[in-house]
Amino acid sequence: MERLATAWAIFQGLLLEALPFLLIGVLIAGLARWLAPDGAWLRNLPDHPLLGPLSGAALGFALPACECGNVPVARRLLAGGAPLGTALGFLFAAPVLNPIVLASTWAAFPNQPWLLAARPLGALVLSLALSRLLSLIPESELLTVPLLEERRLVQPLSQVGLLERRSGLVGLPAAAAVANPAGAPSTARPTLATVLEHGSREFLDLAALLVLGCVIAALVQTLLPRQWLLAVGSAPTLSVLSLMLLAVVVSVCSSVDAFLALGFAAQITPGALLAFLVLGPVVDLKLLGLLGVVLQPRAIALTAGAACVMVLLLGQWLNLVLL
Amino acid sequence: MALALWGVVLLQSSLSGRLDLLLRGMFHPLVALSGVLLLLLAALQLPRGGWRLRERLPWPWLLSSGMALAVLLLPPNPSFSQLAANRPAQLEVEPALDFLLPPAQRSLTDWVRLLRSQPDPELYAGDPVRISGFVLTEPGQPPQLARLLVRCCLADATPVGLPVQWPAGFRPRADQWLALQGRMGVERLAGGQTRSVVIAERLQPIPRPQRPLEP
Predict the structure, then answer these.
(1) How many beta-carbon pairs below 8 A join chains A and B?
(2) Which residues contact A212 (CB under 8 A, 6 or more apart)?
(3) Distance of CA B52 to the CA centre of its chain
(4) What's the rounded mean pLDDT across residues A170-185?
(5) Cβ neighbours of residue A120 under 8 Å, at least 6 residues apart?
(6) Which of A212, A227, A295, B27: CA 20 to 30 A from A134?
(7) Residue A309: pLDDT above 90?
(8) Average pLDDT, chain B
């Protein structure tokens, strides 16, 4: 009973902490939609296998949001027709490559300058590899169906067959067409009311998933003693693995996770510390729920698996160099 | 309207002082602001007419609205020693303390920080102590008086505790909040080491303070 009460309190703490950041992300996404309605600049972003993810990662500096906030922005990018690589690069790298997160990392570890370079670098490498990997999968198996329909509305017909477009001229009305009763996307600036309505829907959809993620994180955190994870902190491989597990379970926002890592930085290997700071923003329990609006379950599983393997290698390599 | 409900949840949480129990102080204005923003958003859409009333609400919205209602109705009541039990009792390396309060004004956290930066127990022997905290019991160890430090929200709370020599016949109960008056003493451990210990002279049960968490 006491455990349940504690889990309930942790759930509220996580939720109340994350909701404002989610709102910020949705507002930024809405703003981007309002300012650049036809999204022509989105489709002009580079589609090069390396430059695409790089430019997506660089967008993180322009649209600062932590991982709960950046899922809606990435979804907006994809729906607006941005190249896949760019949007995925943004999705995976932006939670680390933004001024707020770098500032908090620096504030937490002023005496470990290597970390300030290693964290963004690690995140960049990870996002490049992940977006390369995911772009091997056809879009129709990668993205969720509603997002795919919204995305096809803005793609030129030369890329998408008329039948694939489903909404507009042929086939059923898509979710996007319902939200925007004019049917085909107007190139005119959408009215403020439309943007607001769309933003509200997005916020409510994401909030539902956030609630789910917070429930899981709070339950696991209360029922699984943290000491188990940390007892293995000094073994090179085990420490990396255990900190990865901790990052996935605890699910705090990337803007504050550096402070959390500070709490046990003294007992763990440097590779484990880096693994915690790089993996948390890309894969965690709370995020698995949020990612569901962008990626299909199989793609999420692939992302999580690949990210874990790469972060493990990264941490191992760092331990090899530094220890 | 679901949006307004979330707005109310955020706003009510910050107005009722519940956030003091859940989040670190610096995030409180952010939560309140988001609550106001959400209410504003909901109000802006109200006149354009109940688009949500005509269509069926998707079930995830209903479910999460149910959760929002539950958050509104069921206040959190965590067990602090339960929280502490799941945490490593590690304090980060503190920068050198730049000023010192007189002994009688130091809080429990001040004492713990001081003892970690200057662990010589003889320095403090006899200093008066006036602190408050909750009773933290850990298996295999005598009960301590402790506080929770929070960097972001309750999920990353770390306990800091001071060893206490309880008065004879007093049996501290886990999670009980106590105000303690006493002085610092020196305890000899097995192996010839010494450590500081609080010798309790007067103990008074108190309700959980308004702001139980410390940054």
Answers:
(1) 150
(2) A289
(3) 40
(4) 42
(5) A96, A97, A102
(6) A212
(7) yes
(8) 76
Nearest CA in chain B to A9: B76
Which residue from A14, A224, A227 is facing B155, i.e. has the nearest CB? A14
Q: Determine how many CB atoms are found less than 10 A away from the CB of residue B46.
A: 12
Out of A200, A251, A262, whose CB is closest to B3?
A200
What structural domains and CATH numbers belong to chain B? 2-77 (no CATH), 81-214 (2.40.50)
pTM here is 0.70
Chain B residue numbers with beta carbons less than 8 Å from the beta carbon of A230 are 88
What residue of A is the nearest CA neighbor of B85?
A225
CB contact under 8 A, B152 and A17: yes
Query: What residue numbers bound the domain in which A126 lies?
Result: 2-322
**Residues A189-236 pLDDT 10s:** 667 777 777 778 777 877 777 777 777 777 767 776 656 655 666 677
**Rg of chain A on CA atoms, in Å:** 20
ipTM over cut 0.85: no
Q: How many domains does chain A have?
A: 1
The whole-angstrom separation of Cα B61 and Cα A208 is 6
Residue B134 structure tokens = 């909750």
Q: What is the pLDDT of residue B145?
A: 87
Yes or no, beta carbons of B82 and A14 under 8 Å apart: no
pLDDT tens digits for range A285-305: 778 778 888 888 888 899 999
Interchain CB distance below 8 Å, A259 and B64: no
Does the beta-carbon distance from B153 to A17 stay under 8 Å? Answer: yes
Token reading at B117: 């930066």
Q: Calculate helix-pair angle for A192-223, A67-79, nearest 10 degrees.
A: 140
Closest CA to B76 of A209, A217, A16: A16
Query: What are the start-end ranges of the H helices in B90-203?
Result: 108-117
Handedness of CA B137, B139, B141, B146 (dihedral sign): negative
